[in-house]
Write a structure and sequence with these properties.
The chain contains four helices and seven strands; from the N terminus they run αβαβαββαβββ. With 178 residues, the chain is an alpha/beta fold. The protein has a domain of 119 residues: Rossmann fold (3-Layer(aba) Sandwich), CATH 3.40.50.150.
Length: 178
């Protein structure tokens, strides 16, 4: 896959690659916070019906350029999380900005003062649109499991660094857990 980097858009990194090759992802997929579009492109090539979304105009443009460059028909929309997103998805894939930042100013990596503000907002509002969620979590800003007791959260895989551990987390409402 040849993904063009775009000015002002988060370049794919280890966290992006954690989102690829998740065995059970199929059907209708929402790639939220699409950036360059690498995740949506990957799953579209695997036969999924993909909608990609980002709040950044530059990222939406970049996702469109990259998906067209791969000859794919991905629905790309600009939205703040799930606002303006129509439909229901079997899987929602989200590589959110997750790093704590005392002065949040770069939405491509800054997750807010605690690092989890955007993640919590998403988790609290996604279940009308999403059956199963995969997202990236940082050990620097872990999701407090007690806040979301109704959810089953499993770490599917991780990457360890000297200073941080990144987790790919699978979330489902407990009654739906498979």
């Amino acid at each position: 896959m040849n993904v063009e980097r775009c000015e002002g858009v988060y370049d794919p990194d280890d966290d992006s690659y954690l989102m690829l090759n998740i065995d059970d992802v199929k059907g209708n997929v929402l790639d939220l916070g699409s950036g360059t579009g690498i995740v949506g492109i990957h799953y579209s090539k695997k036969g999924c019906n993909v909608t990609s979304s980002d709040i950044s105009r530059e990222a939406v443009r970049c996702t469109r350029i990259n998906s067209m460059g791969e000859g794919l028909k991905i629905n790309v929309v600009r939205a703040d999380l799930l606002t303006s997103i129509k439909g229901h998805f079997d899987f929602c894939l989200f590589n959110p900005p997750y790093l704590p930042d005392e002065e949040p100013n770069d939405p491509s990596w800054s997750g807010g003062i605690q690092g989890t503000e955007l993640i919590y907002r998403f988790i609290s509002s996604c279940w009308d649109n999403c059956d199963i969620v995969y997202l990236i979590e940082s050990s620097l800003a872990p999701i407090e499991r007690d806040v979301f007791r109704e959810l089953k959260m499993d770490i599917v895989r991780n990457i360890n660094y000297e200073f941080e551990e990144l987790h790919l987390v699978r979330l489902v409402k407990d009654a739906q857990y498979r």
